[in-house]
Design a protein that fits this description.
Helix content is 35%, strand content 23%. With 145 residues, the protein is of the alpha/beta class.
Length: 145
């Protein structure tokens, strides 16, 4: 199986999904079934980071139908999915999901790295994000009024 699922090492409210090489919709559905089972074991919000850095292309067929099916199986406390470094076609499909699949609106995002994906999840949750910088090391951006 070219799709691996595990809890994030630093945050027990994020599940990491790594897709490597060619993959199929059957593998995707098996992985999303596992994600749904993991989410059901907890009562807090859980978000998904899908690392597609080394993934093959999106399988042929109607992606929106497969995504709809996986969303319908997710518990209510499942949050968002952030795709990391998808190829251009996958990016285009994800960006058009809210028009093709209204239930996907505000549920899918794209990030360039796993760290940016985590940061965006925290921001979407309204959490404070500690970037490790203090007042001495944080860059100051001038404002031009």
């Amino acid at each position: 199986m070219s799709i691996k699922i595990k809890w994030d090492q630093t945050d027990s409210s994020i599940i990491n999904c790594t897709i490597e090489g060619e993959w199929t919709w059957e593998e995707y559905h098996a992985a999303m079934t596992k994600v749904a089972q993991m989410v059901r074991k907890v009562s807090h919000r859980v978000d998904l980071v899908m690392d597609m850095t080394d993934a093959g292309p999106l399988p042929m067929s109607a992606a929106s139908l497969h995504i709809k099916s996986s969303l319908e199986r997710m518990p209510n406390h499942f949050g968002v999915s952030v795709l990391v470094a998808p190829d251009r076609f996958t990016r285009m499909v994800v960006e058009s999901l809210d028009r093709a699949l209204p239930m996907a609106k505000d549920r899918f995002y794209i990030a360039d790295t796993i760290n940016v994906a985590r940061r965006n999840i925290y921001l979407l949750r309204g959490s404070q994000f500690d970037d490790g910088l203090d007042s001495n090391t944080r860059p100051v951006f001038p404002s031009f009024s």
